[in-house]
Specification:
cyclic-guanylate-specific phosphodiesterase, 929 residues, EC 3.1.4.52, Beta-Lactamase, alpha+beta, 6 domains, cyclic-guanylate-specific phosphodiesterase activity, 34 helices, five-stranded antiparallel beta sheet, eight-stranded mixed beta barrel, rod-shaped
Length: 929
């Protein structure tokens, strides 16, 4: 029972002395009147006498008169009552002693009438007349004479809820079922208020047949006591309910007698049987070993210092999960400091422990998730701008965990991010919606960090308004985004805008030029000879060349001009706001001059040029694609004009570009349509000692268009990728025709076929050549492949393996047009080349230019020095042949001996050379004439 509740109840001004006893009869509390009479000590001194009285009350009586020896030789007369709760369970006992009046010799009757505040009544039963004393009238508030109500007149004054109980108590006494009539009921006072009365009496006279005649008794005002008891019950109910809601129970322990008391709520909380509550030792046995040791240690400490204690214990419950209890213990001390009693409470904190563990787990999980997700948080008070940061927030910013002001944190951010953050705070503080920002700052280490920030205002719970800010590290995402942006819009090698970005920028510039009426030009720049350099020196050199070329060109342009890499070795320039159209040509020539500076690559000095096409934005060319086509066409015109120059777009350029596109389109499928054929030109031995050789030359007859010049369509075939398939067809057809001539008895040394550099670089080329020879029953030793010098410049492992295979199988190699390309003795000496062919340009000029004659002489001497034979191309006169024979040239090729002939005519030529001219030439199977 809560001691504070009891003490508060006994503060009421009762005229009687009242002592509250617990269920064991021990004094719990006393009012001032009882303390003045030293009633608590008297009760403890006569505990055995009080036990008998309590047992009688437990037997069924509700109140019992008792007399105890008092102090100074006086006797204490009072009333002992049992107090029960609504369920009938015993709560406590009360002992009340009326205020004594008169001398020590006063009679009990006088005390009852004058001192105990009892009213006397005398009931004449047959007449139903009741005599009442003045005290009775005073209790009910009557002044002067008041009617002597009989029972029937009294009943209407009794509370309706109590009338049945009153009748039953009188009937039971009349019938002899009770020795004394006792009843408590509420009686209406003169002012209409209800007052509790204890009515006691006994039949003092009966008729001869035993019927009651007279009954005498007392009325006792117990109103204050009943109110006290009701308040006690209410407080006890509230206490029990509060303990139930908080899973808290009460207990008390009497150390001298080692007796312990548990409240019902305690037993419910712990799940212990109410019928067999544990003793103090039994309680210890229910605890875990560690908890039992803790209880004993706490008790020893409490004995030493007499101070209250609180601690947690674990209650073991067999196979069930243990209970975690929080225990409070408050010692009550004797005057000498010894512990008289220990009062306490117990609360079941199992769920709280589980909840705390769950909260800790969730907090730890949240911290881990925040760390993994790189999400930090902080609160910023709106008025004071004070901040609270999470650990992850400190980590994101690269700071130690310490108090930090908002301005200190913002000092890390870039100016733009700082302004954006402050502006967002201002908008949200004025009622704006939550905002999300991407901000940038630099850690103290200098490392740049991007964060995504979510800001919202929290003004709930009556707390000061505060901003709740979440920070998420998006540095990697930002870097990836920037990388994607770079890949999508910039060329990684040169750092220049790529085709897509250049298109967007150019379209914007063209739109601006239309609106302002300004002049705009597009320059299409193609590096001359880049492919050969890239093939010869490798991709690393090619990449370095592209970067250098981009840098040099960029330096010649204005900041307002647009410049980017279009593809491969092609660049695009957009010139804005030109004063005159001719200014575009000036810029193009500056670019060509800048690129003309040689590039040093180790021991090699590399020179490149540029062909630049210029297109002005005019009527009909006001969109990007049309302007690009015009500039591209002008660039090809510049190449055809000799390269390393620029050319404006014109109608003629358009026609040539259309011609090129027309040829490229016609090339696709031309082989399947059998539009190609071979012609053959003999190579005559200068001394006439050997049979001539034959060179196969490709011809293309386009139905409806006539013959197309090889110098026109072969470069286009190389660019569009048709050359490999076309080249295989040429080798196959040449081998087939040569085998047919050989089978017909025609004598010639070998058949020669021109091969491009692209064919040599094609995987499996050597194997295909040998397979074609085998397919047509033609010896590889009688096949010669004519290569350009540029095809030999790129010294790669695959090229060496190709030539090694040719050398093993006897395939002959010749260098065509020697002296016009990248002549390099290293390559001539490294690869198995058997012949050099002097270009026709030297042969045509050697009779009129002594210098050129010296060149042809040097080529012949060089070839012989390297163990090679030398062939002269384009020989048209006997004088040219004579000079070449004089210089030591081994073979002569040209119109002097024969123009390129179809297969049937060449067969006749061979027969004529052999001196065998049959009447009828054998019919040969030819692929195309």
């Amino acid at each position: 029972m809560d001691q504070g509740v009891i003490a508060s109840l006994l503060q009421h001004p009762l005229t009687s002395a009242v002592v509250l006893l617990d269920a064991e009869g021990r004094p719990l509390a006393a009012n001032r009147a009882a303390q003045a009479l030293e009633l608590p000590r008297t009760v403890e001194a006569y505990a055995e006498l009080m036990r008998d009285a309590r047992e009688r009350l437990l037997g069924g009586e509700s109140m019992l008169a008792c007399a105890l020896p008092g102090t100074a030789g006086r006797r204490v007369d009072g009333w002992l009552r049992a107090v029960h709760d609504d369920a009938g369970a015993l709560l406590a006992y009360t002992l009340s002693v009326p205020e004594p009046v008169g001398s020590d010799g006063a009679t009990r009757w006088e005390i009852a009438l004058d001192s105990a505040e009892h009213g006397l009544w005398d009931w004449d039963i047959p007449s139903d007349t009741i005599f009442r004393s003045e005290r009775w009238r005073q209790m009910l508030g009557y002044q002067g004479d008041a009617p002597d109500y009989g029972l029937n007149a009294l009943l209407p004054l009794v509370h309706s809820d109590d009338q049945a109980r009153l009748r039953e108590a009188i009937r039971a006494h009349f019938e002899g079922r009770t020795a004394t009539y006792v009843c408590e009921f509420r009686l209406r006072q003169q002012d209409g208020q209800w007052r509790w009365i204890l009515d006691r009496g006994r039949i003092v006279a009966r008729t001869a047949d035993g019927s009651p005649l007279r009954m005498v008794g007392t009325h006792t005002d117990i109103h204050e006591q009943k109110l006290l008891e009701q308040r006690l019950r209410d407080q006890q109910t509230l206490l029990r309910e509060a303990q139930r809601m908080t899973s808290m129970g009460s207990w008390s322990w009497d150390p001298p007698q080692n007796r312990i008391w548990w409240s019902r709520e305690f037993l419910r909380v712990t799940g212990l049987a109410a019928e067999h509550p544990p003793s103090s030792r039994g309680w210890l046995r229910l605890l875990s070993r560690e908890s039992a040791a803790q209880v004993l240690a706490t008790w020893r400490r409490m004995q030493r210092d007499g101070k209250q204690a609180n601690f947690e214990v674990e209650l073991v419950r067999g196979s069930e999960a243990p209970l975690h209890l929080r225990v409070w213990a408050q010692p009550q001390l004797e005057a000498d400091g010894r512990i008289q009693r220990v009062l306490g409470q117990v609360q079941n904190i199992t769920e709280q422990r589980q909840t705390d563990a769950l909260i800790r787990w969730r907090t730890e999980l949240l911290n881990r998730v925040s760390a993994l997700g790189k999400i930090g948080g902080c609160e910023i008070e709106v008025d004071t701008r004070r901040m609270q940061w999470t650990e992850e927030c400190y980590r994101i910013h690269g700071l130690r965990k310490e108090t930090l002001e908002l301005d200190q944190a913002l000092a890390l951010y870039t100016l733009d991010s700082r302004d954006a953050f402050e502006a967002a705070l201002a908008r949200i503080a004025q009622g704006g919606l939550p905002e999300q920002l991407d901000l940038c700052f630099h850690r103290p280490s200098g490392h740049r960090v991007w964060v995504q920030v979510l800001i919202e205002l929290d003004d709930r719970d009556g707390l000061p308004p505060r901003f709740v800010v979440l920070f998420r590290d998006i540095s990697r995402e930002r870097e990836a985004s920037e990388r994607i942006e770079l890949l999508a819009h910039y060329d990684l090698l040169t750092g220049l805008p790529n085709r897509q970005l250049l298109r967007e920028q150019a379209e914007t510039a063209m739109h601006d030029a239309v609106e302002r009426g300004s002049t705009l030009a597009m320059l299409f720049v193609d590096l001359d000879g880049f492919k050969s350099i890239n093939d010869s020196f490798g991709h690393a050199t090619g990449d370095a060349l592209l970067k250098l070329a981009a840098t040099r060109m960029h330096q010649q342009l204005r900041t307002s001009d647009l410049f980017g890499r279009f593809s491969g070795d092609e660049f695009l320039v957009v010139l804005r706001d030109l004063a005159e159209p001719s200014d575009a040509g000036h810029v193009a020539r500056k670019l060509i001059a800048a690129l003309a500076e040689p590039l040093h690559n180790g021991e090699n000095v590399i020179k490149i040029g540029a062909s630049i096409g210029i297109a002005l934005m005019e009527d009909g060319r006001q969109d990007f694609d049309s302007l690009l086509r015009a500039a591209d066409a002008a660039m090809y015109a510049a190449k055809e004009s000799g390269r390393n120059t620029c050319h404006y777009y014109s109608q003629d350029v358009l026609l040539r570009a259309q011609r090129r596109l027309e040829i490229e389109h016609a090339l696709h499928g031309a082989l399947d349509r059998e539009e190609f054929s071979l012609v053959y030109q003999p190579l005559v031995h200068a001394a006439g000692e050997r049979a001539p050789a034959v060179e196969a030359l490709l011809r293309w007859h386009r139905p409806g268009h006539g013959h197309c010049n090889p110098a026109e369509f072969i470069p286009i075939a190389e660019e569009c990728g048709e050359i490999v398939r076309l080249g295989d067809w040429v080798i196959n057809e040449a081998c087939r025709q040569a085998a047919a001539w050989d089978a017909a008895g025609l004598h010639f040394d070998r058949v020669s076929v021109n091969v491009s550099a692209m064919q040599l670089r094609d995987r499996g080329f050597a194997e295909r050549v040998l397979e074609l020879c085998q397919r047509n029953n033609w010896s590889p030793k009688r096949l010669e492949l004519e290569l350009t010098e540029s095809a030999l410049i790129r010294d790669t492992e695959s090229l060496r393996r190709c030539f090694e295979l040719f050398e093993q199988e006897g395939v002959l190699l010749a260098v065509d047009d020697f002296g016009t390309g990248f002549s390099n003795l290293h390559y001539l000496n490294r690869f198995p080349v058997q012949r050099l062919k002097i270009d026709r340009s030297f042969v045509q000029d050697m009779l009129i230019d002594s210098g050129t004659a010296k060149v042809t002489q040097a080529i012949v001497q060089l070839g012989h020095a390297l163990g090679m034979q030398v062939v002269a191309e384009g020989v048209e006169t006997a004088q040219e042949e004579a000079l070449l024979r004089e210089q030591g040239c081994d073979e002569i090729q040209g119109y002097l001996h024969s123009r390129p002939l179809p297969p049937r005519e060449l067969a006749a030529w061979l027969r004529a050379r052999q001196g065998v001219l049959p009447a009828t030439l054998p019919r040969l199977v030819l692929a195309a004439q």
